[in-house]
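With this grant's support, we have settled on a layout for protein records. A representative record follows, to show the layout.
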Amino acid sequence: QVQLVESGGGLVQVGGSLRLSCATSENISDIPVMGWYRQAPGKRREAVATITRGGRIHYYVDSVKGRFIISKDNAKNTVFLQLNSLKPEDTAVYYCAATIPPMPTYWGQGTQVTVSS
C-alpha cells in the first residue's frame, strides 16, 4: 500500500507563496504519475498539477498556469508543489495522489491552504 503525507499548507496573504511537500512510502521512480489535487468548500475535487515518472511531462489546470510549479526529488521520494501569486480562489485542501494504472489511485490526507487579503 502506498502511503502519502502532505505538509506545507498554511495561511498566506494574496500574492504570497507556499511550497507543499508530499512524502511517499514508495520509490517515486516506480510510480507513473504523481499529482496534486485540491478541493475548495462546496466544490468538487480537481486536478491541479501532475508529473510523470520521467519528470518531463507536466499538466496544470488553466487557473494555475504560470503560478504553480510541480517538481519532485526522486532521491527523497518527495513531490513538491510551489504555489506563487496566490489568490483567494486558491483556498482549498490540497491532496497528493499517486496513480499506477490500472490500480486505484492513492491519496494523502490533505493539507489546508488558506489565502486571505
User: Anything to note?
Assistant: The chain has no helices and eleven strands. The two ends are 40 Å apart (CA to CA).
